Amino acid sequence: MARRRRGLPVNGVLLLDKPAGLSSNHALQRARRLFQAQKAGHTGTLDPMATGLLPVCFGEATKFSAHLLEADKVYRTRVELGAITDTGDAEGEVVERRKVPRLTEPDIEGVLTRFRGEIEQVPPMYSALKHQGRKLYELAREGKSIERAARRVTVYDARLLSLADTAFDLEARVSKGTYIRTLAEDIGQALGCGAHISALRRLATGPFTSEGMLTLDALEALPGQPEREAVLLPVDVLVDHLPRLEVDATAASRLTHGQPAQVDAGELAEGEAARLYCDEAFLGLGVVAGPQEVAPKRLLSSAAE
């Protein structure tokens, strides 16, 4: 006999404003408890020190969360000059101090131009990447250092917001896999004085921005479950970038039973994924199998009921 999953069948996407001091998983679990949700997952970790946008997927939305892992992201960070830490941020131990030259905004801008576009970046030891089944930060805490291959990432924009004597604020839009801590360290190295970050806030992930984010405190203040579920975005927002196909009831029945169906795919190419709807209800994703045929790819469990 299958075990019944504890909790409520909550479905949707929460734009959570993660607080500082909590890991992404702890923030996720607190949100899950607030919603009494059976199933939840997040779409890319934030360091405990970092704050800001952490999309949390509940229920059926977890099936489509991988689409956000590939998304571009926007961050705002404070770069502290003159001190290098073992973690690349203010939570680490200072391993070297250097004199900070008198810098002007044109000085910073001149260096930033070298970090815009496609660059190579070596992932930090204090990261969740794995080596032989173990997370790098676990090895780093044991005093071990593993050679890491450089990765190609893209910094679409890096904009200087303000400059103080030994620190500056930076806003960056980057591709997946870009470490802002490493970007700041590399900029500090290029300036000749070293650097680490003392604050980091994520402002956007893919189509989602900080507008509409809710803190855990704001969620706790809502009077009940209906009010909490009302703040969730629908499941299909995660795949809104894919083309949309309308199917009739007959095709919907076949698709939800795992069979290909006759559907006019229009100008979509064979192998292309699309969102499927029947009577405005989201069914899930299909893949074009031919000019007049679509096969199921990933469907909502509720679509087959």
TrEMBL record:
Against InterPro entries, the record matches this protein to:
PsdUridine_synth_cat_dom_sf, PsdUridine_synth_N, PUA-like_sf, PUA_sf, tRNA_psdUridine_synth_TruB, tRNA_sdUridine_synth_fam1_C, TruB_C
Enumerate the spans annotated as tRNA pseudouridylate synthase B C-terminal domain.
181-239
Q: What is its EC number?
A: 5.4.99.25
GO MF terms here are: RNA binding; tRNA pseudouridine(55) synthase activity
Q: Origin, by domain of life?
A: Bacteria
Write out the catalysed reaction.
Answer: uridine(55) in tRNA = pseudouridine(55) in tRNA
Any idea which UniProt keywords this protein has?
Answer: Isomerase, tRNA processing
> Its GO biological process terms?
mRNA pseudouridine synthesis; tRNA pseudouridine synthesis
According to the entry, every stretch annotated as the Pseudouridine synthase II N-terminal domain falls at 32-180
Q: Which residues form the active site?
A: D47
Task: List each copy of the tRNA pseudouridine synthase II TruB subfamily 1 C-terminal domain by range.
Answer: 243-300
- Would the keyword Cell cycle be found if you checked this record's keyword annotation? no
What this protein is reported to do is described as: Responsible for synthesis of pseudouridine from uracil-55 in the psi GC loop of transfer RNAs.
Q: Which protein family is named in the record?
A: Belongs to the pseudouridine synthase TruB family. Type 1 subfamily.
Recorded protein name is tRNA pseudouridine synthase B
Lineage runs: Bacteria, Pseudomonadati, Pseudomonadota, Gammaproteobacteria, Oceanospirillales
- State which gene encodes it: truB
